[in-house]
Amino acid sequence: MDKKVSIILSTYNEAPVIENTINEIFKNLNNVEIILVDDNSPDGTFEIVKKINNLNIKAYSRKVRGLGSAFLLGLINSSFDIVGWLDSNMGSLANRLPEMLELLKENDVVILSRYVEGGKDLRSKPRVLASRLINYICRKLLSNNVKDYTSGLFLMKRDVLLSAVPVASGHGEFFIEFIYKAQKNGVKIIEIPYTQNPDIEGISKTASSFFRFCHLGLNYIIRVLLTLLRRN
């Protein structure tokens, strides 16, 4: 019997792509539930999801925003022993999920990585530069065993949570601390290459303004330093 998988999606203004992403997940995995957490999207994202007639979708709408806390809410409401995260506007990557699931037979976490051999990042030059800089800092200050600390695209066995629990605050920086603690505590992690395509105009929230872009980058660096200070 196929392994049962819980996939967490966080959405904010994903109306143009969310139905396709959901369809791609169901197309590529047989026994899967989707836990979707929408941060009060004004573009009707949640309404689109609610109209999809599938009992394997758990959809939650909330008033607050935050990628880390959305992941935590999804994790709390997930049912299965394998849990994953997929960016809501990267539905094309759902075809990698079967391969990732297969690799979990010998590993505890499988990460889609831009920084192992074969991986690429085709976004705008400022975003590529910022991502490379943050990951360089992570590898220098934390550990070189993980190459893409900011990927956030992964499948894991639920019992990884016995070794590391995500401090689910902020944006995607929560993944840096979580994956570092996991590998530090002996969790077996494998990274496989993927190509991050250019951002879909109007969809990316990270690059929505220069100020927000810089603010998020600073938060990532602060999180790296906090990770070093925390004992557990």
Topology record:
Blueprint: E1 5-11, H1 18-28, E2 32-38, H2 45-50, E3 57-61, H3 67-76, E4 82-85, H4 97-103, E5 109-113, E6 120-121, H5 125-141, E7 154-157, H6 174-184, E8 189-193, E9 195-196, H7 210-229
Helix pairs in contact: 5-7, 6-7
Tell me what you see in this structure.
- With 232 residues, this protein is of the alpha/beta class.
- The protein has a single domain (5-229), classed as Spore Coat Polysaccharide Biosynthesis Protein SpsA, Chain A.
- It contains seven helices and nine strands, in the order E-H-E-H-E-H-E-H-E-E-H-E-H-E-E-H.
- The strands form two sheets. The chain has a seven-stranded mixed sheet with strand order 3-2-1-4-7-5-8, sandwiched between helices. Strands 6-9 form a two-stranded parallel ribbon.
- Helix 2 (45-50) links the parallel strand 2 (32-38) and strand 3 (57-61).
- Helix 5 (125-141) packs parallel to helix 7 (210-229) and helix 6 packs parallel to helix 7.
- The model has no long low-confidence stretch (mean pLDDT 90).
Which class best fits the helix and strand makeup?
alpha/beta
What is the CATH homology-level superfamily? Answer: Spore Coat Polysaccharide Biosynthesis Protein SpsA, Chain A
Put simply, the count of helices is: 7
Tell me the CATH topology: Spore Coat Polysaccharide Biosynthesis Protein SpsA, Chain A
